[in-house]
Amino acid sequence: MGRKTGVAEFEESPPDDFDPSNPYKDPVAMFEMREHIVREKWIDIEKAKILREKLKWCYRIEGVNHLQKCRHLVQQYLDSTRGIGWGKDQRPPSLHGPKVEAAASE
């Protein structure tokens, strides 16, 4: 018994008939859209993991020079991790951090 050499094929684009103003109009399109969003999030998360491994390797290899030599990887990693967590879909990056309490006016 050998390994299967086929590649799984799936639709990579969002569904054409999904209406964001009325998502419950077509339940099949809503389900396909949800699958598409989840798939894209997992791809972004895995890309960030790969960059993190490259960054760890660079830190180990470069030693004390890692601040200069690995700066480009740090920037790529930070850019790739902005807004990719679950529940951070539509919020701007300024709202992703801890909440800032408003000063109470008396």
Features of the shown structure:
106 residues; mainly alpha; elongated
Task: Kindly report how far apart the N and C termini lie.
Answer: 77 Å
What is the CA-atom radius of gyration, in angstroms?
A: 20 Å
As residue ranges, the low-confidence spans are: none
- Oligomeric status of the shown chains? single chain
Order of helices and strands: HHH
Number of continuous helical runs: 3
> What's the total count of β strands?
0
Share of residues in strands: under 5%
Main β-sheet description? none
Helical fraction = 40-55%
Class per helix and strand makeup: mainly alpha
Q: Mean pLDDT, rounded to whole units? A: 79
Which descriptor suits the 3D outline? Answer: elongated
Organism: Manihot esculenta (Cassava)
Keywords: Electron transport, Membrane, Mitochondrion, Mitochondrion inner membrane, Respiratory chain, Transport
Biased composition (Acidic residues): 9-19
Subcellular location: Mitochondrion inner membrane
Summarize the structure.
With 106 residues, this protein is mainly alpha-helical. It has a domain at 27-80. It has helices at residues 27-62, 66-69, 71-81.
Task: Give the arrangement of secondary structure elements.
Elements: H1 27-62, H2 66-69, H3 71-81
Helix pairs in contact: 1-3
What does this molecule look like?
By secondary structure, the chain is mostly helical. It has a domain at 27-80. It contains 3 helices and no strands. It has helices at residues 27-62, 66-69, 71-81. Helix 1 (27-62) packs antiparallel against helix 3. The longest helix has 36 residues, at 27-62. The radius of gyration is 20 Å and the shape is elongated. The termini are far apart. 0% of the residues are buried.
